[in-house]
Amino acid sequence: SVASAGQSRYQIRPQAPTAAQLKEVRSTGGLQMVEGLDDSHSASDKAFIKALALVPRMDLRLDGEHRILQIMLSLPPTLVANALDVQQANREYQERALAREGLRRMYIGTLTLSLFLAVLGAILLAVLLGNQLARPLLLLASGMRQVAAGDLTPKLTMQSQDELGGLTRSFAAMTQQLADARRAVDRTLEQLESARGNLQTILDNLTAGVIVLRPDGLVVSSNPGATRVLRVPVAAHEGQPLVDLPGLKVFAEGVLQQFNQLKSESDGFASDHWQQSFDIHASGQGLAETSVTLVARGAILPDGMWLLVFDDISEIVSAQRAQAWGEVARRLAHEIKNPLTPIQLSAERLERRLAGKLAPADLLLLGKSVRTIVDQVDAMKRLVNEFRDYARLPAAHLQLTDLNGVISDLMALYTQDVSETARTVSVVLDLDPECPAVMADPQQIRQIVHNLVQNAQDAADAARKWRVPEVRVRTEWSQ
Fold it and tell me: ∠280-286-289 over CA atoms, to 5°?
């Protein structure tokens, strides 16, 4: 040591650096360190900072020896204490760092064991509680599969007081309610089907026709009575307009017009139906005219469809007409019958008065004419009496009759002198002598031939302008 300086002037020899420190100073040129710090806080008053520095020589000596400057500074006790604490903490951290792997393995083992124990406990708990939890769910699942398949028989329930038990009981009650509802629906459907069958039977056996129409006039359905009354296969035209039914265009247009009028009036609450008569299939003219008289009634159904009901009243109308004609016939018969008796009496009186005053040939003609008048008057009386009875044709009294003889006697009325009237049409007889006697009513035969000859004379007289009028009466026997 060449020289020293410090706070204590009594310390003559400072602490010399070690050989290692001197070597490091010579190699590096400087060294700094803290000394006096150990595990005991009792040495904290001896802690200091030591700094060594290589000092180059300033003279020209060549012996190669260098000087080293050593500086030692005591540390404050507080700083020393803090440093010791940090050093202790660092040692503890190093110890824990060294023990961390072991702790990690220990923790892993502990957690793994805890996991195994937890899983085992869960399995045991599941085994213990599985019957209580899974059985109601299995019952519900099985019941739902049965209900989905349509099986509504009573289902098993759990008698426990927990929520799952209550759920199984509620499901069983719901299944029973569904079964009761299904039975009620089945009964209702059976009743509806029975009522539908009864209604269909009634409709099929109704004498009246029934047709259901859409508001646009298309035929939806019909009963057999519609075909019978309309004389048209209505069922074959379902889905087609009513106006397309053959021969019923006027009838269909009238029906659609009535429905449209009813629909417009229904908004004002005027009526809930309409009724109208129609004549269809008319043919012929005058008394020979034939037709079907219908009385139709229509109403609008709650679903908007149109209901058409109609019936054939031709027989009723015919009966009314027959009654009216019968009344007319009775009056006419009374008026016609009154002059017949005087005609007959006058002819018989004329025969008696002229019996001794005429030549034999004229007397024979007179007798024949009187007999013809008497026979015709009797026929007229019988015809009028029969015609009076409800204007029906007289009953035929069949007997063996010579047609040629009946016609010859009748034609004697028409064999008069043409000069008596310029408008008389001659009648020519052409009788077949081979005609045998037949079963007939001679009075009705006379009436028929008389009417035919009268009609023929009227027609021939109308044709006088372009041809010679003549009426030919002919009989012919066909083998």
Answer: 30
Residues 6+ away with beta carbon under 8 Å from 51: 30, 31, 32, 70, 71, 72, 73
Tell me which residue has tokens 């109208």: 276
Q: 239, 238, 257, 237: which is closest to 247 by C-alpha?
A: 237
Tell me the chain's radius of gyration from C-alpha atoms: 72
Cβ(65)–Cβ(42) below 8 Å: no
Which range, of 110-114, 199-203, 473-477, averages the lowest pLDDT? 199-203
Residue 233 clears pLDDT 60, i.e. is over it: yes
Distance from CA of residue 124 to its chain's centroid? 60
169: Cβ contacts below 8 Å, ≥ 6 apart:
157, 158
Asked if pLDDT for residue 208 goes beyond 80, the answer is yes
Question: What pTM value is reported for the model?
Answer: 0.40
Task: Give me the DSSP letters along 293-341.
Answer: EEEEEEEE-TTS-EEEEEEE-HHHHHHHHHHHHHHHHHHHHHHHHHHHH
Tokens of 247: 């021969």
Selection from 90, 74, 1 nearest residue 36 by Cα = 74
User: Which pLDDT band, with edges at 50, 70 and 90, does 64 fall under?
Assistant: low
Q: Which of 2-6, 40-44, 124-128, 177-181 has the highest mean pLDDT?
A: 177-181
What does the alpha-carbon distance between residue 412 and residue 245 come to, in Å, rounded to a whole number?
57
- Using DSSP's 3-state secondary structure scheme, residue 277 falls into strand
**Residues 289, 279 contacting (CB under 8 angstroms):** no
Spatial contact of 343 and 377, defined as CB atoms under 8 Å apart: yes
Closest CA to 21 of 48, 53, 49: 53
Residue located via tokens 């408008």? 423
* Residue pointed to by tokens 């009243």: 313
Q: Is 395 helix (H, G, I), strand (E, B) or coil?
A: coil
Whole-angstrom distance, CA of residue 35 vs CA of residue 324: 160
Measured CA to CA, the distance from residue 375 to residue 370 in angstroms comes to 8
What does the DSSP assignment read for 94-123? HHHHHHHHHHHHHHHHHHHHHHHHHHHHHH
Please tell me whether residue 453 adopts helix, strand or coil conformation. Answer: helix
